[in-house]
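Posting this for the archive.
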Amino acid sequence: MPEWNIRAISIRLLLLLVSLLPPTILAADGVAVRYKEGVSHGFLVLRTPDGKPIADGESTQVAQGDHVTSHLWFKFKDGSSYDQTTVFSQRGTFRLLRDHVIQQGPSFKHQMETSIDASKGEVTVRYTDDHKQEKVTTEHLELPPDLANGILFTLLKNVQPEAPKTTVSYVAAMPKARVVNLEIVPQGQKPFSIGSHTHMALLYAIKVKIGGVAGAIATITGKQPPDTQAWILTEAGLHEKFNKAAFETLWRQSNGISHRLIKSFG
């Protein structure tokens, strides 16, 4: 029997089984503020896992009261660019307010601009389809209060390391916007170096959980995004130093969490 026939039959059986089960809702956890964000300015290098530099970038952050605005951009050697501006609050728990991302160039499968207004539950995606036609979609979604778009690194610094699993939400533009879950699972401590200094870091695995029928189909068709690894410094009082000086190391080790998610969902 041809392979595509086997796959089609498997998917039909899977859909039948899912339809007989009650719907499952994955409850996401809010991340409490343990370390408040402040002013920061970093110069970044994005590398492949084998250490080859592929992009230069910059990160800035300004806090006004409980609101924080961060700006991250990368310019790739092939002419591609990634630009993200995020506004979030840090009153008790971290909460995304707005997120705006522009990704352009051959490093990305789709040329795309995504805007999230969490207060309105509004997601706008401007993208170029496979026929080079520009499309714009605006959707109103029930956005949970624990969205991680644009603040994933901040959340990683603040999760409880003794918790066996922390779940947050993420708006993925595929290009149709949908909410998925990210499970953050601690993997123990590992040493890493910045220059001549060695530090201990917590290693986290970040697992994408699409959920529902779409998630089941993604698994059976081999389109489930792979896990991502992230390293977070454990020494107290050095988190901001880690953000600035070791961002390159974190991106190299994790292959870029934000970039990896974009590539996985793109």
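Residues 3-20 form the longest helix (18 residues). Residues 15 and 213 are 7 Å apart (CA to CA).
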